[in-house]
Every structure is written in structure tokens, then in C-alpha cells.
User: Which sequence fits this backbone?
DNA sequence: TTAAGTATGTAGTATATACTACACACTATA
DNA sequence: TATAGTGTGTAGTATATACTACATACTTAA
């Protein structure tokens, strides 16, 4: 699995190789509101991943999933954290149960809740 | 709802008022491996809540639920964060669905997973 | 061939986090 | 009436987080 920085560079260069010249390091950095040298160091792994806000902007700019990009940076989005912290006992118990469950089981629960079977 | 510091002091003073003299601020701080003045300031809300490690120690020392105490400090335990970060897409979706669900629905899911109905 | 655009290197900064060390004043006990 | 124990106030520190500013070297298009 690539590191956060490597993955970021891959995404950006994919856009470039598809012919969109707006995905140079400088132009991308400008859209993100950060210094090009900062983005360079993040992509190269010289610096830690940036703040949640910048990562979410990156995800939107690159067409990636914010939660996945945040996870690659070792971060959990604030809204998810708050969902858990409002009912910590309940969610702690559920999550520790689901830890060992396969993907399809979690997906199935999600679907059933969506379908209002609760 | 009391703040983290207020709640901490309530817990500690409960032990004291039940006659256990080991729950003075100084002795408690010593068991926790922190300075008494630091604990004093935390309880009074002069300082931010301490690190996850110290909060978990506090919970054990006071007979409280670590996840609840961490939540009062605005923190999520590392193990729960990691459960989510390993499958961010899956858990993000589930959590955002469960956000609006009542307690009993979440409890019911937890029980059914426990009982191996999946 | 020069001007614009590319990435990168060096050297900082501001703010937050997570504490320690020690002195002080008050209170209960022996 | 010492002294042991109580909580608190002042003043720091070390480390991490999240960046900026500017200079430099290389590349490409006019």
C-alpha cells in the first residue's frame, strides 16, 4: 500500500497524464491554498500529512474519497468522531464487535439500517 | 452535563466521602504518575484534559468507563480509531447511517452481532 | 534564447499539547 | 504547637503540529 504522500502524487499525476494541465504541483497547491513547497514535501513524505481541512480539500480537488484519504493520513474525520463521542459506550461496544466481522457483514447491516428495517 | 474536570473531581470526592483516604488529590496524582498541581488544574479546568494514557489510568483508578471518560475529554481511544481507519469507507457509511438511530437500535445490532447471527 | 513554468531545498514561525518543579497557604492531628 | 497532609499558584519546558517565505536549479514553449 502506498504512503499518503505517494498516493497523493499518483492521483495528481494521473490527472496530469490525462491531459489536465491544472494539476501541476504549483496550480494544485494554489487551489488548496497552500505553498507549493509544502505540497512537494508532503507528496515526497518529507512532511507529515496536513490538517484535516487541507486533506478534505485535496480529496475534493482530486476526486478521491475524503474518508479514505484521511485514513491514509491516520486521521478520522471530525464528524465521525463526534457521532461516536455523543454515545461512547454504545458505539465502543458495537465497533469492537464489528472489528472481527468481514466486510460483507458490515455492509449488510448498513443496508438494513438504510432500508429502515429497524 | 459536567465538564471533564468537574466530573473527575466528583468521582474522586465520592471515593473520599466513602471513607477511602487514598483518594486525596496528592495520592491520586501519585498513583497516576503525574504532579498533584497538574491534577489540580485539570480538575479545576485550568488545563486541558491530559493524554489518552493518563485518562485511561484515571478511569481504571476511579472505576469509571475509559471510553466515556475519554469522550468527556473530546477524545476517541486509539483502538477504536484504528478499527475504523482499517476500513474507512465501510465504517464511515455505517456510522453516518447510525447517527440518526435511537440507542436501542444500535444495542440491538450489537447483540445480534454478538449472538453470531451474521 | 529568454521567459515562463516546473519541482525542490533551506530555514524559519506560530500555536498547541502535555506536561514538571517548586513554593505557598491552609487545616487537621498528635 | 509542631508537623504532616491538603489543595493551589506561578513559572517554566520539551515536543509536535501545521504551516510560510524565499531561493535555487531544471525544463519547456515562444
Assistant:
Amino acid at each position: 500500500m502506498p504512503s499518503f504522500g505517494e498516493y497523493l502524487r499518483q492521483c495528481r499525476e494521473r490527472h496530469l497524464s490525462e491531459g489536465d494541465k491544472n494539476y501541476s504541483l504549483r496550480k494544485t497547491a494554489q487551489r488548496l491554498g497552500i505553498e507549493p513547497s509544502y505540497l512537494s514535501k508532503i507528496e515526497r513524505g518529507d512532511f507529515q500529512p496536513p490538517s484535516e481541512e487541507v486533506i478534505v480539500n485535496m480529496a475534493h480537488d482530486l476526486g478521491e474519497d475524503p474518508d479514505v484519504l484521511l485514513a491514509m493520513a491516520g486521521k478520522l474525520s471530525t464528524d465521525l468522531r463526534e457521532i461516536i463521542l455523543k454515545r461512547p459506550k454504545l458505539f465502543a461496544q458495537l465497533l469492537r464487535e464489528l472489528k472481527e466481522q468481514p466486510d460483507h457483514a458490515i455492509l449488510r447491516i448498513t443496508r438494513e439500517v438504510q432500508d429502515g428495517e429497524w
